Amino acid sequence: MRLSQSLIPTLKETPADAQIASHRLMLRAGLVRQMASGIYAWLPAGLRVLNKISAIVREEQAAAGAQELLMPTIQSADLWRESGRYEAYGKEMLRITDRHERDLLYGPTNEEMITAIMRESVKSYRELPQNLYHIQWKFRDEVRPRFGVLRGREFLMKDGYGFDLDYAGALLTYKKMMLAYMRTFQRIGITAIPMRADTGQIGGDLSHEFHILAPTGESGVFYDAAFEAGDPSAAASVEAFYEQMTTIYAATDEKHDLAAWEKIPAERKREGRGIEVGQIFYFGKKYSESMNFTVTGQDGTKIFPEMGSYGIGVSRLAGAIIEACHDEAGIIWPDAIAPFRAAILNLRQGDAATDKICGDLHEKLGQDCLYDDREERAGAKFAEADLMGHPWQIIAGPRGAANGQVELKRRATGERFELSVADALAKVLS
Ligand code: ATP
Ligand code: MG
Fold first, then answer.
1. For ligand 1, is residue 242 a contact (CB within 6 Å)?
2. What is the pLDDT of residue 201?
3. Residue 230: per-residue pLDDT
4. Ligand 1: which of 195, 201, 279, 312 to mutate, judged by most atoms within 8 Å of the beta carbon?
């Protein structure tokens, strides 16, 4: 992509109303714009981040056996009357009346809808277990939308729903999802810790929240330093992995257990703040019973399936990652989800050799690079590339270009390398 022809409206000034770094940087790097309180437009570079996060989520969900579908944002109130949550949900639910005076709502979550879909189509024990998810916009009329996309009113969520025949099956699904989540966060390039959590509006009795550590997080978190070395890809089995994740201490302030905490050696105690980027729940027959979803068992009896739900805040993640990965100069994107893997900075637009090198690199790197081909001072190009946080900067100027050399800068470490064009390309693509 050529920067001269892109809508990446960076800001030099710090927006006055943004209280935390990720919000300021998302506005300054031209990723999002607020359209109404808690409602954001995702500009081209921001959308690329959302899409890259979603792609990793999809791959890991598929690997764990979940199927993708797409449910609508608007739901009928009648569905929610069946489960009893229409009244219970309160003011966070955006309620809408259509021209025929029918009550609708903008979905804050989808347990009722997926249960209704399953109830209509799945009749026999032979058709279970199944695990279904979608990535769709949600609306929750938060009292205090704040921190940009971290607490929006409209936000993008991956929400998945497991249906099993019995408790053992549902628990296995829960464990598989915990592993899939840890793999997802690991691939994205961040550390998220699963913590025992309350179940809130969704209900049920087993739940974990996944927290990214950041001083601006809304939850107080307590955990054992053993989590800092976690590598879920090394897990021998789902069972062993789950055992490990749930025996090492980690809890949010709501679930903090002082007696258990006292048993941890002082040098391993970690206390801080976390941003919740996902949550998983096991809640048994809560929705299958209230909405009368049964399948026929092997012996002909009716079985209410055991359910769980599995959420990841895709749009919140974009902000939370920046909260965890930035410095004074700007964002430091993890490679896997950066809007662009590399930026090419042409320091002398119009110099034949420099233009040639940049043009060739742009062609070879394709859509995943941003070519700063603007008539701008070098200093401005450096500052904007640092602000946008591309993992790699390929800097080309006439002096190096005369010998076929460019400078390669790694954003995360600040390391710089003088390389031939081919070597720079190989390093960026490796
Ligand atoms: P919170 O406690 O932060 O209000 P929640 O526990 O109500 O969130 P869940 O129902 O667990 O949210 O939703 C799953 C995920 O969706 C959360 O882990 C979070 O990442 C994301 N999410 C929830 N509310 C918002 C919001 N207002 N803005 C952005 N993302 C959100
Ligand atoms: Mg939650």
1. no
2. 65
3. 66
4. 279
- Distance (angstroms) between ligand 1 centre and the Cα of 41 equals 19
Query: Is the separation of the CB atoms in 209 and 253 below 8 Å?
Result: no
Check residue 229 and give its pLDDT: 75
Give SS3 for 420: strand
Distance 314 CA to ligand 2 centre (A): 13
Residue 78 and residue 223: Cα distance in Å, rounded?
Answer: 42
* pLDDT at residue 204, as a whole number: 67
- Could you tell me if 204 and 286 are in contact, meaning their C-beta atoms sit under 8 angstroms apart? yes
Instruction: Tell whether ligand 1 has an atom less than 6 A from the beta carbon of residue 157.
Output: yes
Pick the ligand that lies closest to the CA of residue 274: 1
> How many angstroms is it from 198 CA to the middle of ligand 2?
8
Q: Which among 366, 426, 387, 363 is positioned nearest to 14, based on CA atoms?
A: 387
Please give the Cα distance from 19 to 41 (Å, whole number).
19
CA of 150 to the centre of ligand 2 (A): 13
Successive 10-residue mean pLDDT values, the chain, 430 residues: 97 91 98 98 98 98 98 98 95 97 98 98 98 98 96 98 97 97 97 87 80 94 88 82 92 93 95 97 96 97 98 98 97 98 97 97 96 97 98 97 96 97 96
Whether the ω angle into residue 129 lies within 30 degrees of 0, i.e. cis, is yes
What domains can you pick out in the chain, each with its CATH number?
3-330 (3.30.930.10), 340-429 (3.40.50.800)
User: pTM of this prediction?
Assistant: 0.97
